[in-house]
Amino acid sequence: MNNNSIHANPSKSRSPRHRAREFALQGLYQWLLNNEDSGVIDAHIRQAHGFDKADREHFDALLHGAINNSIALREDFAPLIDRTIAELSPIEHAVLLIGAYELKNHIEIPYRVVINEAVELTKSFGGLDGHKYVNGVLDKLAAKLRPNEVTAK
User: Could you read off the pLDDT of 49-91 as tens digits, one per residue?
Assistant: First the structure.
């Protein structure tokens, strides 16, 4: 994922919030692989092609929120996965951090939207069936974090 990376599905119209999630994913991927300072990652991502079309406020919340709360977020989804956190692909790991952060901290976003966005990110950037895995984990996490919303469906 470099400054000139092109979205995996360029024909899809993406909202500013979806773009924010894509850029947050890139930043979290970089953080997971290189353990770089979030400020350095933030500055790098902001220079990326197309960042001007992203929801900057949501990007900030996702990138910094997921990094700063990564231990608690992992504790939330670790019991729901069938492997260790270290065995997750970096994309699945980053998407789960984003999804868990949104489920926990952005209750104004319906849980189904959070899960759908996470699935779309994983389809675009992850492995072949990673989206199914992310969907299953976040579905269980939504039931745990937002039981009233999930049962009201």
Answer: 999 999 999 999 999 999 999 999 999 999 999 999 999 999 9
Phi, psi of 61 (to 5 degrees): -60, -45
As a whole number of angstroms, the distance between CA 112 and CA 126 comes to 20
Contact 15, 30 (CB under 8 A): no
What CA–CA distances, in Å, run from 134 to 1, 9, 10, 25, 36? 21, 19, 22, 14, 25
H-type helices in the chain, by residue range? 16-34, 38-46, 56-68, 70-77, 90-105, 111-125, 130-145, 147-151
Tokens of 4: 């000139």
Which amino acid is located at 12 in the chain? Answer: K
Gap between the Cα atoms of 101 and 50, Å rounded: 24
* Token pair belonging to 40: 């350095």
Task: Tell me the pTM.
Answer: 0.91
**Helical axes 70-77 vs 56-68, angle rounded to 10°:** 80
Which tokens belong to 132?
A: 């199914």
Unique residue bearing structure tokens 């779309």: 120
